């Protein structure tokens, strides 16, 4: 149950408890008699053998208890979810679309509650939480309007498994689930280990009310991965996460006949050379700190022509110094709140300290906005922006995505070095080049090892008209986005574009 003895600032804890009370009134089927959340599996709400605490990164308080299922229970859940496939797939597309439309109506009706719980769930500001939910709703409407031609001549796969990161539970994970179901699949998803499980469980309750064949399970990754990846009832896998876990999933899938789309991290680089439009770059730098750079498309590596380094640093510091970091649910405006957990913030602080001990210069160290916290609030998960220069080449901060507001500046003195340093991570999801010379921009862009490359602009994931994928180690399997998302988890005459082991 929720804490009954407030720790820190009581009013904050009262707010999170009030939201769960409101959720229990709106969706009683999702809770047991003690207020603990259950798992929706194939139309039934399953009681787990144990629960785990869902703690908010905002202040460390426990906001709910989530189901902790074991391997055998999840395997049985996979079989039950797979049994929903045939009755759902034989329904006409019009019937499936009507059910998805009803789910979207229910999501709209509970939008404010979902947004407020999502903010507590993973530490988003209310504007970014609204953006996450609203992108899911708008994306669902987009697919409902256009799915007919996308499915022409195609058939669903069966049961599709979703294992996703915690940072965009609605605009990425839930949208994928809705599209996969619209295409005729039954769907099972895993609650992200680090956060988002409370708002997701409530959203899945709404999808079940609309009659969609969707299931949601919670538990330790090591207990659930075999059932959600290797079980013979799984026909397709959508994964979003880090390279180490993604590589393990890929090894399990690459020699099977299962369809898969595996999005993995990469170091997204912004290369700058022969450039003068610093005001435009400042706007991009500021926009890039959305959600504290806890995004797979965040730019955290700045590769800059040596003569431009002083101007870049001045632009960066002037811009980033205006960002406010603090409690995202208080009345005072903040640009971003905590990282997903205190342990993540401590990991990055440790890496920064290690790099400094090896000679790295800290060119900017931001501060928390003191007026954006309550007086006794836990602040361990909060990390203001940091810009590092001279990071050792064997440092984790040099070689991998930090998934937080830690930027690395690399100075180069040739085009060859610029390209080499921008391509440090063996493939990325996005990259950009800033230059006043259009021909140079095109030449450099063609050599950047990223799926999307911006010229004097940031690139984003995209989830409708644009396809999305990655190069090198940042992606494996089918690309997604727009028609590609539908084709990724259906069979038919069109080839499936992707990053496959044979290089196709």
From TrEMBL:
Keyword field contains Repressor: no
InterPro entries: Ald_DH/histidinol_DH, Ald_DH_C, Ald_DH_N, Aldehyde_DH_dom
Superkingdom of source: Bacteria
Keywords: Oxidoreductase
Database matches in SUPFAM superfamilies: ALDH-like (SSF53720)
Listed GO MF terms: oxidoreductase activity, acting on the aldehyde or oxo group of donors, NAD or NADP as acceptor
Pfam families hit by this protein: Aldedh
Presence of keyword Oxidoreductase: yes
Coiled coil segments of this chain: none
Domain Aldehyde dehydrogenase: 52-490
Protein name, as recorded: Aldehyde dehydrogenase family protein
Organism, as annotated: Corallococcus sicarius
